[in-house]
Amino acid sequence: MTTAAFWILAVLAVAGGVMVFRFDSMARATFSLLTALLCVGGELIVLGLEYLGIVTVLMMTIEMAIMAVFMIMFMMNPAGLMPMTMVHNKRGAAALCVTAFVLLVAGILLAPWPRRRGRAPADPTTDLGMALMGPQMLTMMTLGMALFATIVATVVLATRRGRYERYGDDLRATRPDDPVRGGVGR
Amino acid sequence: MNLEVFLIVAAALFCVGLFGALTQQSIVMLMMGLELMLGGVILAAGAAWHYIAPATADGQVLVVVAITAMAVEMAIGFAVVTALFRSREVDMTDMAAELRE
Predict the structure, then answer these.
(1) Distance between CA atoms of B28 and A109, rounded to whole angstroms?
(2) A52 vs B46: CB contact, 8 Å cut-off?
(3) How far is CA A104 from CA A19, A107, B13, B23, in A?
(4) Is A2's CB within 8 Å of B35's CB?
């Protein structure tokens, strides 16, 4: 059962990944990527990591929904009504990727992997929670800071007009440079 | 099933993503390639947890780190696309190349 699930998910994941770059339509490419990443979440569940698998599935679903919105905002051909290829250096990249894959597979097959040590706890999720709140606290704090920095950076990058546009680079302007004057006499 | 098979699937996902990230000109498609690469990393970390050291949670923590990296990449990527598009109406990597000089 798990073997069948593994192979179905593996084939779907890789096929979805390949189709992302073959579909003409951006929307289809997004959903193909969603398929691939959902299958990765499914593989995690096959491995016994139910919590992380479900987290992956939920996160990818929302992420791809957001991605579809951005696609339609920015891309010229969201519906795929005409054939579309926007690629550069296809041959070199293909050679590089095949080489990388061959090297990785050779390494995977030749490496002396350590033998399985210990057995999985009855509830890996509790284990993860205890690790993140205990010995791996530094990792958790770093992730938290990184996510906070991401929030700030995202807002800064996406802001159309900030205080530097309004008050000049040294923030010394007496009057803000607004396209429309404010209504309170400033 | 064993560790090698899982890692080979992860390597396949990683290399397909690498191909996309290297070839695609549209920044959003390039980010999709990065997402696929990180998907491969997630799978490899999960397999390493299950087949090498299931008694400790380090492999699971690695999966959490990779998922967070995915979220950060996505958010910053879209913010950069928005900023680029706003300043020069550009959504392709080749058109945003003037910093190269």
Answers:
(1) 34
(2) yes
(3) 22, 5, 12, 20
(4) no
C-alpha to C-alpha distance for B75 and B78, rounded to whole angstroms? 5
| pTM attached to this predicted model | 0.87
Mean pLDDT in residue range A53-64? 93
CA–CA distance, A29 with A32 (Å, rounded to integer): 5
CB B64 within 8 A of CB A132: yes
Gyration radius of chain B's alpha carbons: 17
Arithmetic mean of pLDDT, B13-28: 90
Q: Which domains does chain B have, with CATH numbers?
A: 3-94 (1.10.287.3510)
Q: Chain B contact for A105, CB < 8 A? A: yes
Among the partner residues B11, B29, B76, nearest to A104 by beta-carbon distance:
B11
At B101 the pLDDT is 46
Q: Which of A7, A47, A69 to mutate to test the interface with B (most CBs of B within 10 A)?
A: A47
Q: Taking the domains of chain A in order of start, what are their residue ranges?
A: 1-80, 124-178
List chain B residues with CB under 8 Å of A37. Answer: 35-36, 39
State the Cα–Cα distance between residues A66 and A75, nearest whole angstrom.
Answer: 14
| Three-class secondary structure assignment of B28-92 | HHHHHHHHHHHHHHHHHHHHHHHHCCCCCCHHHHHHHHHHHHHHHHHHHHHHHHHHHHHHHCCCE
What ipTM does the predicted assembly reach? Answer: 0.88
Identify whether the C-beta of residue B96 lies closer than 8 Å to the C-beta of residue B89: no
pLDDT tens-digit readout, B63-80 = 999 999 999 999 998 898
